[in-house]
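re: that complex we talked abt at group meeting.

here r the seqs, copy pasted straight from the sheet so there may be weird spacing, ignore it
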Amino acid sequence: MVHKFIMCNQEKCTGCGTCELACSVTKEKTFNPKMSRIRLVRIDPFIDMAIACRLCEDPPCVASCPRDALRQSEENGVIIVNDEKCDGCGWCIEACDFGAISIHPDKKTVVACDLCDGEPLCVEMCTRKALELSTLNTLSNKTRNSVVKKLFRFLLG
Amino acid sequence: MVVVKVFGNLKAIFGTSELEIDVCYEDKTVNSVLNVLMKQFGESLRRELLDSTGKIKAVYSILVNGRNIALMSGLNTRLEENDTVSILPLVEGG
Amino acid sequence: MPAAYAGRILRVNLSTGKVTKQPLTNELIKKWLGGKGIGTWLLYNELKPGINPLSPENKLIFATGPATGTIVPHKGYILCTKSPLTGIYTSSSSGGYFGGELKRAGCDVLIVEGRAEKPRYLWIDDEVVEIKGAEHLWGKNTFETNAMVKEELGDEEIKVARIGVAGEKLVKFASILNDYSRMAGRCGPGAVMGSKNLKAIAVRGTGNVEVAKADELIDFMREFLETVKETPSTGTSYPMWGTPGGVNGANLQGVFPTRYWHKGTLKGFENINAETMRKRIVVKDKACNTCPVNCSKVVRVKSGPYMGAVLEGPDYETLYSLGGLPENTDLNAIVRAQEICDTLGFDAMTGGNVVAFAMDCYERGIITSKDTDGLELTFGNKDALIQMLEKVGKREGLGDILAEGVREAAKRIGKGAEYLAVHIKGLEPAGYDGRGLKGVALAFAVADRGADHLTGSIYTYEMRGDIDRLAYNGKAAFLKDCEERFAVFDAMVFCRFLRDVYPWNILTKVIPLLVGFELNENELKALGERIVNVARAFNVREGISKKDDYWPERFFKEPLPDGPSKGQVIDKEEFNKMLSEYYKLRGWDENGIPSKEKLASLGLGDIGAQLEPYRKE
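got the structure back, here u go
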């Protein structure tokens, strides 16, 4: 099953932070980047990039949970958290290679990007179209396309 | 002869930033200079400089000797020998 | 309490160590909205006239606005204080993320008062406020300070406003930097902070920012982002070229200040324009809070003697001050020069002005290599420019005199230097020559903090040809409307570069979605007018009047010598007419003092009475 997830093109990202606020207003009805499930990393001055759950094929967060509080959706691959079982131990956070799962400051259970209803606001409002909801193979395809176009740009005029 | 100076993306299209244009005496206006340029540089210039209705894109300003044609007679602004016509992206600064 | 506000003023007294939390009242919000509105009102009321800006009696007011921390694109905060450079009012806007962090920490306005006995930094961790020792930070540059504070507090996401060595040494135009190199740049707020022995302010804010109508705000944003894309300045020019896009137009129209304001066109300006930047040194684009314009460019010098120099910039203003004024057409050298200003923490606009002024003096023999410690301070000598800027930031040698600003430096140097010095009310101008831009001539003359381009921002319309830059007629009325709309921008904390997409009717649309109450166009204009008047009142109390609303005599007497604006001067008679018209439209008397009637009509009757001693008969 090839999952779609939200990926950020670092070359386009300007670090504006719209994605974080789009997420927090959608999920939490407020503006607070620390309540967002997509998180921007700014390494000044050269690097801006947003990271959201990558819906791994074999999610280490799910495997690591001592209480089986996490499972991966069969349908779209998102991580589903059982708030009753989750006790906020954070072992999944240590397991995740990307820092894409985090503790909700109020609920004290973990949250991760769940792609909203399939039309995430962060992707819609990204000011530079750096965010895409896409699959890895599509990304791979695009990269191939783009490099070939670049190598032979003199033929394209 | 008038001197035409270009900036922004136009430099790549022109292959240079400055060139001299000869326009016939009777119709020495900014408009006639543009027609000569369109003939010379074709589709790529048309695409960059004009919008879908054939007007100059709002992002471009045209100056004659440092004066904006919008404050003179627009594209019908008359030109004298050795005038400089500059075409450049909308200028803001700040 | 209206939405979009934390509801609190945080007051820190460094003399007593006392931290006070006060409510931000409904009354203040309704009358002043936020940002420059609240900041100016507080500054006017809390400072007595005549205080020394570097004394404990001065205050630093960091004022966020209702847009801060929300999804509507905005700058960060407005800094209000009394300027040590000019001795009058100043407000400075800073982009980046520090302002949002302050609001999330529960603070709409931060006021810093008094003076610490030893170097300190402020740590605002949501509700908890500490004044911590900063002796180990004293002497560190702006970038080092940022890194060290974040490391010792153990959180990379903390935002730090800080000064560098220039602020510590009270360089009169030292800046306060936040994030990478965003700053409250002009007029010396960094020196005020240094005089308080305050090295840095670190903030962590984990709270929420609410707005009145979140769903409608998102709908508004969808439409707004479309408009931004379709508008040339916000959709194409600024994103693609940034402010450096102005270099071509300014030179082609002969108004690019060159050779210390003696010329209007820089030979070789193509070497330092936006296209050359993109081709040779731009590495990425950067944006402030949720801004779709991303005008900022990050650059790296890839070869040559300045290889490795890194900068968020240069912008139009520094290309003029470090390129045009010293006649330096080496883009890499400009990057290096501005990097020094940012590292030491001082305003590169004033920096370029004072060094180019010194070059002018040197070329005329008013100062010699004895004064410059052997530096050959001639126009075009970019290494001398770079070395002198470093001396200015550290107050070394001639740099110690130049660090006072051009007005004071000229006084100390004497021998005719005062005639050369270019400033209005003690502030060196932004990069537009008033001889070729008559609206700019008026705008710089009357702006609240001195020869400033942002207060009125009329330069945009003249540079673009929306209005005739060589005409005097109609400029006073046009400027008045600009000043008021942009004062409202500064109250919201909106960025000037969205000026084309925030006409009055869009401002009235977005404000209620944020704060939950409405302000119609007339009420917004009145707010703008109130802000302009209180800033003017502050200045009147410091002795400002009509005599100070003038460019130096040079600009009335010496025409631009060549280029597209050859022969242009500011015509004294026409200028006086424009100025009188401006005063009349503003309801100020013939001496430029706001009248009792005007102030009363704005609900500022008390100020009307307070200004009585300053009115002539």
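couple things i noticed - The CA atoms of residues 12 and 130 of chain A lie 5 Å apart. The longest strand of chain A covers residues 39-43.
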